[in-house]
Amino acid sequence: MTLLEQVQEKSKEIHTDGYPMSIGELASIYKDGELDIHPDFQRIFRWNDVQKSKLIESILLGIPIPSIFVSQREDGVWDVVDGLQRLSTIFEFMGILQDENSQVLPCSTLVSTPHLDKLAGFKWINENKSLEIDNSLKLEIKRVKIDVKIVKKQSDKNVKFELFQRINTLGSRLSDQEVRNCLLIMINKEFYHWIKAISDNENFLNTISLAERLIEEQYHMELALRYFIYKNIELEEIKGVTDLSEFITSKMIKYAEDKDFDRVNEQTIFEETFRILNNIIGEDIFKRYVKQHDKFQGKFLLSLFETISIGVGKNIERGTLIDEANLLDRIKSIWESPEFLSKYGSGVNVTSRLPVLLPLGLKIFSNEA
């Protein structure tokens, strides 16, 4: 197949449309339930009052607003793929934004902006009429048009996920896991809440002991996903991986859509794994062991997480885990393993690291070794 033929074939999988819509029209279809901006995203996307006020300033001054991307569902409803924060800001300002419980949120209050310092204190509806947006300005706002790009329902089902990923990763505005969380909410909200609850497990959080910034970027959720993926994949699957982030995303989607993925059993093993590990050492479990000082020190090491947590988890699943009394000595012994020492550094890529570390962890923590 030539490049031209491949382009022609793939382009048939994507059906798009687009036209300008007024803010008034967008507000109307949102109130009618025909535009879904996923309130759950508000925890991930969050503009401050200055950013929100600058958007309203742009609308009032006629500064063009970037296009909104939506994906048409089978029921005809538009899922917002990109533009959620812009629409949320506008709808919150107008007093029609709903939270995840379908409760309407209060109108937002504007603050001073670079070109309109008089905006400070103004609201769409205000008991203090002197600080309520004038009716003529409300009409102008409602008439402002925003270009809407539509991925139609005839498109391949993965197109909207691919579009969302590209829009929100090329600009590096979100971490990989924040993008995945948004995808999960669109694919299977229940699975998103499941993985989020699991990643908030106290024993798990204590053992990984991440900096606050990494928690805010949802890296703990990524680590929980990695745990389930690495515990369940065949080693052959990882050998051909060129983009680990994409691999994690594709596996996440597969699990979220797989009705046979046994969440109850997986959660039980996960919780038991990190209960045991937290009881042994706690927050030092995934840090370097220095034999001469008989202590663990330094920062969280991903290679240790892969070796220890997956090794313990798989042995729990198989009923072959060594006695807990012997676990600490086995963990210390990792630092005497030539296999581990050759693969644990940050410069070792995942395709050469995991095929060594995963079997090593399984062996070290097995009572059959």
Structural overview:
The chain has 369 residues and is an alpha/beta fold. It folds into two domains: 3-163, no CATH class; 174-364, no CATH class. It has helices at 3-11, 23-31, 49-61, 84-94, 135-143, 159-170, 176-187, 189-199, 202-208, 212-216, 219-232, 235-239, 244-257, 263-280, 302-318, 324-333, 338-341, 350-364; strands at residues 16-22, 35-36, 68-72, 78-82, 145-151, 288-290, 295-297. The strands form two sheets. The protein has a five-stranded mixed sheet with strand order 1-5-3-4-2. A two-stranded antiparallel ribbon has the order 6-7. Strand 3 and strand 4 form a beta hairpin. The N and C termini lie far apart (50 Å). 31% of the residues are buried. The model has no long low-confidence stretch (mean pLDDT 87).
**What portion of residues is helical?**
40-55%
Number of helical regions? 18
Largest sheet: 5 strands, mixed
Would you tell me the overall average pLDDT? 87
Low-confidence stretches: none
Question: Hey, roughly how much beta strand do the residues contain?
Answer: 5-15%
Name the strands of the widest sheet in spatial order. Answer: 1-5-3-4-2
Indicate the structural class.
alpha/beta
For this entry, what is the oligomeric state of its chains? single chain
Cα distance, first to last residue? Answer: 50 Å
Question: How many discrete domains?
Answer: 2
Alpha carbon gyration radius:
25 Å
